[in-house]
Automatic annotation (TrEMBL):
It is found in: Cell envelope. It comes from the Bacteria. Residues 57-310 form the Periplasmic binding protein domain. Residues 1-20 form the signal peptide. Keywords: Signal. Its main location: other. It holds the Pfam family Peripla_BP_4. PANTHER family: D-ALLOSE-BINDING PERIPLASMIC PROTEIN-RELATED (PTHR46847). This is Substrate-binding domain-containing protein. Gene3D superfamilies: 3.40.50.2300. Belongs to the bacterial solute-binding protein 2 family.
């Protein structure tokens, strides 16, 4: 299996070389050609008339994580609004890179008119991107891992997730202290950027010591184990930043198991419902919500505009917000119009 995976990824790099030559490798956080989600209509005009026979395929990392289920809900909301068909599929787990590639390639073979992809790594869907390019089928990379040669990306500024959490620590611990990071999957752009934003912001402050930064591969169990070890080694730790909420909830369990809840703050990223519930109970300190339902709706609008012949910015930025007990109730609203209004005012 490992040999097959290496062979497939090597082929991906070769087959994508022609297309990659026409575009610089995408770094979604720093790409200057970008438009905020609130500016799509003012910059590009009203949504063009949509052909109701269109079929759009969505390819997610996994559906075991609520974030990706909510992203699919956003796709479905937009598909219903525009009267088109959407198929949303995902790999069995976040390590099934070849399975995810197979899903993307099958959707292309089935005649879908566009793909919305959320890759497991920065390279595992490159063969599907190349196949889509050869057929003239638009592809939009939606959040998380970033395929370097992709033409369009929709998502938040990943580095800002970590920056926002670091600023919270600076404001609430003016004397600094020891902190740790529970990273996502090694080599994934989003995980690296989230960690870098947190680390660099605290380093600039000069009062905090990052005592550990270890991967837990998006796993709650691995995060629990990693946090337990770190707490044993550094019993005076004041806080953790986990690259997603699933891992953050595992960290909360470890903190509570060692009776450190009053001492050690824990933050995650994503804004899943379990994280909101934990925040409201006073367990998880906070999360950075990237609003997956809204992101899915924006991504669908972007690909439909592209299919209709519009040339958009390479990156369309979607919103995020630091959520704590103070604002969790307001941002957990189910009123989509109200949420959009709140986010547009940030």
């Amino acid at each position: 299996m490992k040999k097959c995976l290496l062979s497939a990824l090597a082929s991906a790099l070769l087959c994508s070389s022609v297309y990659a030559a026409t575009l610089p490798p995408l770094k979604s956080d720093s790409e200057p050609d970008r438009t905020d989600w609130t500016q799509l209509e003012s910059k590009y005009g009203a949504m063009p008339k949509v052909d109701k026979t269109l079929k759009i395929g969505g390819v997610a990392k996994t559906l075991t994580n609520e974030y990706w289920r909510l992203l699919g809900e956003g796709y479905q909301n937009a598909a219903k609004k525009y009267g088109i068909t959407v198929a949303y599929q995902a790999a069995a787990n976040e390590d099934d890179q070849l399975g995810q590639l197979s899903i993307a390639e099958t959707l292309l073979e089935q005649g879908f008119n566009g793909l919305l992809i959320s890759p497991q790594t920065d390279i595992n869907l490159e063969p599907a991107l190349e196949a889509a390019n050869s057929k003239g089928i638009p592809v939009v990379n939606v959040n998380d891992a970033v395929v370097p040669g992709v033409r369009y990306y929709v998502g938040n500024v990943q580095k800002d997730n970590g920056v926002r959490v670091a600023k919270w620590f600076i404001a609430h611990y003016p004397n600094g202290g020891k902190v740790a990071v529970i990273e996502g999957q090694p080599g994934v752009y989003a995980a690296g950027q989230r960690t870098a934003g947190f680390r660099e912001t605290l380093q600039a402050n000069g009062k905090f010591t990052l005592v550990a930064s270890v991967p837990a591969n998006w796993s709650r169990e691995q995060a629990y184990n990693a946090a337990s070890t770190i707490l044993q080694q550094h019993p005076d730790l004041i806080g953790f930043y986990a690259n997603n909420d699933t891992m953050a909830l595992g960290v909360v369990e470890a903190v509570r198991a060692q009776n450190k809840a009053k001492q050690t703050a824990v933050f995650g990223t994503d804004g899943i419902s379990d994280a909101y519930a934990s925040i409201k109970r006073g367990e998880l300190t906070g999360t950075v919500d990237s609003f997956p339902v809204l992101t899915g709706e924006v991504a669908m609008e972007v690909i439909l505009r592209v299919i209709n012949g519009q040339t958009l910015s390479r990156v369309v930025s979607t919103p995020q917000a630091l959520i704590t007990k103070e604002n969790a109730e307001a941002f957990s609203t189910k009123d989509n119009a109200r949420l959009r209004q709140l986010l547009a005012q940030q």
